[in-house]
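Subject: sequence -> structure tokens, single chain

Hey, anyone have a minute? Need the predicted structure for the following. Not urgent.
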Amino acid sequence: MSELLLINITGPDKPGLTSKITAILADARISVLDIGQAVIHNHLSLGMLVEVPKESASSLVLKDLLFCAHTLGIQITFTPVSDSEYEGWVHEQGKHHYLLSLLARKITAEQLERVSTLIAEHGLNINAINRMSGRIPLENEHGGHTKACVEFSIRGTLEYENRFRDQTVAITDSLGVDIALQEDNIFRRNRWLVVFDMDSTLITSEKCPWPSR
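Reply:
Had a minute. Here:
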């Protein structure tokens, strides 16, 4: 009978790290059922849900992975996953997905706390949080306004969407940020038009381009 394992890897990012780990899995003919990787400030976080076939000895695979992790200077952990846990994860397919964008001059912990609390209060789960804007320098050499944006990938059924949107408006008013919510579907991916008014959110110059008469 096959064995399901959740592998979590953390540590300094370096070229070839993922290829060395997956090479060990490939030698054992292991199937990868789920995978996610992120790098924050050159620090890697990699997770894989794998299926070890019954003809492969998981103990040998884990031993090779532990040795590889030691040579790379990273940490690796293994968590067994039961068949019932896996089936419950599979049955979560089909739930709605949303993207929530948070735009501000600078992202603060208070903003993230307010948004994540709202998401949890509506029974939604956060799949991922990604920075969509450029890296902000500590010293603003040119004296211009900084712009920062993070995007929440959310999963679940939003039963009270109007109330959720009203609550996001309350957050924007109290914290001086912009929040946009959209369903993550094929129709969203085909849209490439963004419209802003001249409120200095992204456009800092409000001068009329035409000469006065």
